Amino acid sequence: MxxxxxxxxxxxxxxAARNRAAVLAACRELLFRDGYHRMTVRSVAEQAGVSPxxxxxxxxxxxxxxxxxWDVTLAGDDEPVPIRDRPQIRAVQSAAEPGEKxxxxxxxxxxxxxxxxxxxxxxxxxxxxxxxxxxxxxxERLAGVRALVTHLAGEGLLAPGCDQATAADTCWAxxxxxxxxxxxxxxxxxxxxxxxxxxxxxxxxxxTPASHAPTPDRTDAT
Length: 222
Hints:
- This protein is mainly α.
- The protein is built from ten helices and no strands.
- The longest helix has 26 residues, at 98-123.
- The N and C termini lie far apart (72 Å).
- The relative contact order is 0.10.
């Protein structure tokens, strides 16, 4: 009897990846066109060219779709790489100067919030059905800022008397998508202006005085 060929799952994985990308693209389009409550799993499936069962199996319904869309928007892609292992975060850890660490981290936050702001603004108005999903993203963001504070503390860079828990809460509050929206859409700040402000205020609150950055000039920010 001839030996069986080893099973090759490559084509199945590629098909699943294409379907996932199509569903998320359809979800984004219909969400922004019709709103959360008018968008349905069936309409997303039809737009993506898959069955509703495929959507439910992959994402578990509308809240699961929103979480997947959030994660892809946050990362900027759908690669299975945790945020903590991505090049921008690795660059924060490898920077030699304390101020450069926060500059790189602020750049990551500004880019993420720029991508997330429209989605956050829409989902924040969607009501209790997505409240738990948004609460999960807040906890994940808190874990990320705690990792930053732990890294700074491990490098001996936190200001004397700076409590790590309070420092993490400060970072968490200052980097919220809602605050980003308030400053950009509400107050007309440019993204670069927000990033400069974030570097300045986090430096002032976290780092030793020798590492403090100058106050950003709002009139020159671009």
